[in-house]
Write a structure and sequence with these properties.
The protein is mainly α. The chain has one domain. The protein has 4 helices and no strands. Helix 1 runs antiparallel to helix 4.
């Protein structure tokens, strides 16, 4: 009975950790372990944010895929 709640909490924690900018930018001293949002902020601006916008869309794809898979799993379990 707890599986839907655990799956929902997993989605929230995954999204929060994926988008963790503050921790990655202030506490991280190594360039080898930077998070994606920190790397995205360091991209040079090309035109009207063209490169950053394309990179941000690509960065969001894993989150969308994980959430879609878990939502499909949750909806199959609830019926």
């Amino acid at each position: 009975m707890a599986r839907p709640g655990v799956a929902g909490a997993t989605v929230i924690v995954f999204i929060a950790s994926w988008n963790d900018f503050l921790f990655g930018s202030t506490l991280n001293r190594s360039t080898r372990s930077e998070t994606l949002p920190v790397l995205l902020s360091k991209l040079p601006t090309i035109g009207f944010l063209g490169g950053q916008m394309a990179a941000s869309v690509l960065m969001c794809l894993p989150v969308v895929l994980v959430v879609a898979a878990l939502l499909r799993w949750l909806s199959a379990r609830s019926t």
